[in-house]
Each structure stands twice: as structure tokens, then as C-alpha cells.
Design a protein that fits this description.
- Helix content is 34%, strand content 23%.
- It is α+β, with helices and mostly antiparallel strands.
- It has a 9-stranded mixed beta sheet with strand order 7-6-5-8-9-13-12-11-10, sandwiched between helices. The protein has a two-stranded parallel sheet with strand order 1-2. Strands 3-4 form a two-stranded antiparallel ribbon.
- Helix 2 crosses helix 3 and helix 7 crosses helix 9.
- The radius of gyration is 22 Å and the shape is elongated.
């Protein structure tokens, strides 16, 4: 039977607010029948992007219901057994009991391979990637001057070795309106996958913003307008392979002005003080290289998030790495101890 994202119980809805990719990985693994094996690459393709192979391994290492969710049936692309939380000998024993021929440290993929990607219509990552590209095409960037700055950062806490991780998000407000820092902890339901950071961190950010909304007693949109506020997100915006990174996703989902402030370069190349891309048949300016000491080094990278032009973003941050983001980062570190 052909399965789709919508058929999951509970369903995984891949959209800008995040998604339960750990649960999806465990569900995909449960599709592998007894006596067969699959690979990390097959699960990554079933997720919708081969880049997710390492994240599959992270998800399987956190499997809370082994061997009922049979992560022992996942091997490497060359047939090597790979790792297993209960040891390689136990993995061999389970596979042998299920009828999989194990020769030394390898299985015969020719006789036992089950391609999970062939039983899923479309993986959530391919849906998300298409959504990112589409939403980027709708963006309109304008020049603004801001009086209030809201910095938000996320970190990860020590957590049980299985099941979901625990995350921490910290939010700091300075300027026309100043509010005590906010810090929240929440389950993190997705591993890190390059270019899909919002699936992991957006839920943390939304939870912190919801706490801000409760504290101020008015809608976020009203607050942002009255305080002339902008959200500074520790991540990329337009400076993203699909031109729609974490800062774009968060801003667009809530229709709040946002700017991406990244500590490292995700995509593009540096030309002078610009981050450029020569793809799509033309030279495209993705963001700007800015000087200013930050937790990642002596430079940081600024790009449009939601609604804010690159020129306005650069003008907003011309004084250096924003203090509200540094404070949010330090709050996160304290929360993660």
C-alpha cells in the first residue's frame, strides 16, 4: 500500500512551524518487515532528502521502543551492520533470528534489502523544501527603522538518551519597550538537518514568543507595531539555498518583521562585504558580512528574514553584533546547564 504523510497517526504536518521528524523516522523504521533490512540512505530518501542520512542515524539512536521499533533492521549502504544501542552482537542475533543472513559484519543486501522510500508518496522534507521555495517567492522586502529589538536564541539540554531531546529558547527585549528576559524549555521533536533548521528550532521560538504575548497582554502584531520592533533570529533568512531560512520561516508564520543573524556561512561565497550566489543563471546578493565579536567569531552574516530589506537589516545592525542576541545566547547557555 502506498502511504503518505497525511496517513500518519498522529499526522506529521510539515510546515513553517516545525514537525515531528523523530516520530516520522521511527514510523518509517516500523515499516520494514521481519526478515528484511533497509539503509540510512533509504530512510533519508523516504524523508525526502538524501542530506538527512546522518539525521536518520541520530533519530534511530534515540529510538525509545527498540526492538519493537526495529532499528536493528537498518544497516549501512554497503551492507555493513553499523551501530546499535545494545551492541553489534545483539543486532546480529536479532537479524539472524528474523531470517536475515549475516556473514561476519555484513548482510547480503541483494537478497534482503527493503527500500522504504518506495512505499511513501512524498517525504516531509521534499514538501517543506517546496514550501520554502514557494513562500520565498511571495516575500516583499521593505525599508524600516526599528526602535525595539527582540533577540532570540536556542540551545539544547542534557536529556534522556532515548526519546525526544530537550531544548531551551531565550528571548531578550531592548529599546522602546524593555521586558525581563524570557526562557522556556520544550521537547525537541526533530534532529538537525542542514537547510531545515526551522523544523527543529521554530517550535522553541514560537513557545518563547507565546510567553511574551501572555506577559504583555496583547497580540504580538500589535506589540511589534506599537514598539516598532523587529525579531533578530540566530539563523539565516534569505541567505539560504531556498531563500527561506529559520528567520524567514518564523517571521512569515507570525507575519512579524524579522532579520537573520548567522554566526557561520550556510551558503554562497564572500565577495568583499557581500555574500553572493552565482546560481540560477545570475549573480545574487544573499546577505552581508558584518564585523562584530560574537559567540562564533569576529564576523557575522546578516540577511533579510520576513518583510525587511537587506539595506534596512544592515542599517539596523551597523553597530555590530546585537547585544540582545548575545544576551539571549548567554541566557540559553545558563538554561542548558
Amino acid at each position: 500500500k502506498s502511504l503518505s504523510v497525511e496517513s500518519l497517526d498522529p499526522p506529521v504536518k510539515p510546515f513553517s512551524r516545525g514537525g515531528n521528524l523523530y516520530g516520522y523516522i521511527w514510523w518509517l523504521t516500523s515499516l520494514i518487515p521481519k526478515g528484511r533490512v533497509s539503509t540510512y540512505g533509504s530512510l533519508a530518501r523516504a524523508l525526502g532528502d538524501p542530506i538527512a542520512a546522518r539525521a536518520v542515524g541520530k533519530g534511530l539512536s534515540r529510538n525509545p521502543e527498540a526492538p519493537s521499533v526495529p532499528c536493528h533492521r537498518i544497516v549501512m549502504s554497503n551492507g555493513q551492520l553499523g551501530g546499535y544501542a545494545y551492541g553489534r552482537d545483539e543486532k546480529k542475533r536479532l537479524l539472524s533470528e528474523e531470517g536475515v543472513a549475516v556473514n561476519g559484519e555484513k548482510v547480503d543486501l541483494a537478497s534482503s534489502f527493503f527500500d522504504v522510500s518506495e512505499v511513501v508518496n512524498e517525504g516531509p522534507l521534499s514538501v517543506v523544501a517546496r514550501e520554502q521555495t514557494y513562500l520565498s517567492s511571495l516575500e516583499k522586502y521593505e525599508d524600516y527603522a526599528f526602535s525595539t529589538f527582540i533577540g532570540i536564541d536556542a540551545a539544547y539540554l542534557e536529556a534522556p538518551s532515548t526519546g525526544f531531546e530537550l531544548g531551551c529558547a531565550s528571548l531578550v527585549v531592548e529599546g522602546k519597550a524593555t521586558i525581563e528576559p524570557i526562557r522556556i524549555t520544550l521537547n525537541v521533536t526533530s534532529p538537525y538537518i542542514p537547510t531545515y533548521l526551522h523544523l527543529r528550532e521554530a517550535p522553541l521560538i514560537f513557545a518563547a514568543l507565546l510567553m511574551l504575548e501572555k506577559k504583555i497582554g496583547k497580540s504580538l502584531m500589535d506589540f511589534f507595531q506599537e514598539a516598532e520592533a523587529v525579531l533578530l533570529v540566530d539563523g539565516d533568512g534569505f541567505m539560504h539555498p531556498r531563500r527561506f531560512g529559520l528567520a524567514s520561516s518564523v517571521g512569515a508564520a507570525l507575519d512579524l518583521p524579522s532579520i537573520g543573524v548567522a554566526k557561520s556561512l550556510l551558503t554562497g561565497s564572500i565577495s568583499g562585504d557581500e555574500v553572493i550566489s552565482n546560481g540560477r543563471g545570475r549573480r545574487e546578493v544573499l546577505g552581508k558580512v558584518m564585523s562584530g565579536k560574537n559567540p562564533g567569531g569576529k564576523f557575522f552574516y546578516v540577511s533579510s528574514g520576513h518583510g525587511v530589506s537587506l539595506g534596512a537589516a544592515v542599517e539596523t545592525l551597523k553597530g555590530g553584533y546585537p547585544d540582545v542576541l548575545l544576551r539571549a545566547h548567554l541566557e540559553c547557555k545558563r538554561g542548558a546547564r
